[in-house]
Amino acid sequence: MSHSNIQDPVISRQTPRSDFSIDQCWLEYTADEHAVWDLLYARQLDILKDRAAPEFLKGLKTLELSRTGIPDLKRLNPALKALTGWEIIMVPHLVPDDVFFTHLANRRFPAGRFIRRRDQLDYLQEPDVFHDIFGHVPMLANPVFADYMQAYGQGGLRALNLGTLKNLARLYWYTVEFGLIDSPEGLRIYGAGIVSSFGESQYALENSEPNRIAFELNRIMRTEYEIDKFQKSYFVINDYNQLFDATQQDFGPIYERLKADTTSYGTDQIIAADSLIR
Ligand code: PHE
Ligand code: FE
Fold it and tell me: Could you tell me the pTM of the whole model?
């Protein structure tokens, strides 16, 4: 696989550590790279102020991700650590599953160093620093969500051993990346894949095409997903405790059932047990 960030000289000159991390070398971002962040930030904030979950907006504000330019981890990490014990590390490209889960289980979130080019504002093959930091970090400032992410890392290591990662990955996809929440103010976005996308931030809430289905753990673990299109189904939680509590149970019996009956649901499929949200 070719990596879209290979032209980032600060990445290519470094030999990653055994945990795949590299240095951010924040001083070496160019003025243009910072300007791309600012452009993306301004564009997203404008559409997210009444679409993103209150907890996401709170995280953005508390961590001052609104300061101009790509965040400097030397400033961001102490602030995030003080809130929930999480820190961000930089990686050169996507890391192997076991490495990713081990980082999460230790409250470290791996983020890409590179930022997309100006001609790629809306489509990326691989997560960049805007998706990873703007998209994921605000929710890591929320204590319940922070615990969920760590538990997911532990669960990921287990699923890897049991050969059930395909099912568990769907949970990450439909919550961490593309989750919606039914907040007191109405339907809101908390998924990083949506909040970091200009088009999908509007589509996920306002378009009449996609299904919006009440969160159901077993259902999600049977639901396929597509990585290169807007979603055809979103799953809606009531609050973050619902997510955390539902995933605290031992997944062993769930995995047994998934192995015994391998029924899966298509991306746009609705089943009788679904409870549809507007
Ligand atoms: N409880 C899950 C297990 O037994 C682990 C997990 C926690 C998975 C949180 C996802 C999210 O494997
Ligand atoms: Fe992501």
Answer: 0.96
